[in-house]
Amino acid sequence: MESRSLTDSGQPAPARVRPGGPAPLLLQTVHEHRAGLGAISVLKARGTVDDSNSRQFAEALAEHVGHAGQAAEHPLLDLTEVYFACAAAMRSLDRATGPLARAGRALAVVQPRPHVREALTNAGLPGIRVHATLASALHTLHALHPAQTPHSPQAPHPPHPPADREPARAEPGDPA
Fold it and tell me: 149, exposed or middle or buried, with CB in 10 Å at 0-12, 13-18, 19+?
């Protein structure tokens, strides 16, 4: 007897149906203020990053990181809804986060799907740190920058995670 997931209509269950093609890339920036941490800026990406839009992704990410630096915000990249990350996407991330890596800093990347997390880990990009949750990323930022506010003269914007930490690895306590 064959065991297949079919609905009453004989169609495959919705979870088994693949979308009809790549999802368009959508990018949105959200600015927030967190008590005890200060200003954060989250670039939320949704859709597919591939050869056709990797340049757009890299430019948006570089602009996001640059603006956050000028505004004394902590930049984060939310990849929760990114469905595909090809080699061009990895090169885009590397180009956009290279200046951070050279300065001994890293961009917190939040909630990549398992295949995207694997691609990031395999790429070994020094300018990113992968976190399983936004809470984990914020906790790490808070530990590195306690009670920092964006306009506090006695709290300059110090380096964002140390460069001696493993690149593109899950933080301690994050599920793999």
Answer: middle
pLDDT at 13: 44
Asked if 130 and 123 touch (Cβ cutoff 8 Å), the reply is no
Q: Which residues contact 136 (CB under 8 A, 6 or more apart)?
A: 171, 173, 174
Residue with tokens 């990031």: 120
- How confident is the model over 85-138, as pLDDT tens digits? 788 888 888 988 988 899 888 899 998 899 888 888 888 999 999 999 999 999
- Using left for φ > 0, alpha for ψ between -120 and 50, and beta otherwise, residue 104 falls in left
Global pTM reads 0.70
